[in-house]
Amino acid sequence: MDQIKKPEKYKDYLSQVDPKLLNQWREEQDRLKKLLIEEENLPFTLNPNDKSKPLLKRVAGVDISTLKDDRSKAIAALVVMDYSSFEVIRN
């Protein structure tokens, strides 16, 4: 996989992160890469008329951002939504 050239600001950001934490992040990223599935072979369908597989019920998204004044701290969010209505599930 080709490396994407990172802007200088990215290098400044990395210099502010504890090297041990940065290494943990890289190890986790490598672990997750091994789980990547590149072909579509889903056990569910997005089409409510397709009765051959169960209909997808929920979708989720996640985001993580570091604090501007302290790059060693981060805030993460996870949102789970009903796929058919895109309403956030609060339970």
Structure in a nutshell:
Helix content is 25%, strand content 20%.
Please give a structural write-up.
By secondary structure, the chain is of the alpha+beta class. The protein has one domain (8-82). Helix content is 25%, strand content 20%. It has helices at 8-15, 19-33; strands at 58-66, 74-82. The protein has a two-stranded antiparallel ribbon with strand order 1-2. A hairpin with a 7-residue loop joins strand 1 and strand 2 (74-82). It is elongated, with a radius of gyration of 19 Å.
**β-sheet strand percentage:** 15-25%
* Category from helices, strands and their pairing: alpha+beta
The number of distinct β-strands equals 2
Low-confidence stretches: none
Largest sheet: 2 strands, antiparallel
Overall shape: it is: elongated
Distance between the termini: 39 Å
**How much is the radius of gyration in Å?**
19 Å
**Overall number of domains:** 1
Helix percentage: 25-40%
**What is the residue-mean pLDDT, rounded to a whole number?**
87
Question: Any descriptors?
Answer:
elongated; two-stranded antiparallel ribbon; 91 residues
Question: What's the arrangement of secondary structure elements?
Answer:
Elements: H1 8-15, H2 19-33, E1 58-66, E2 74-82
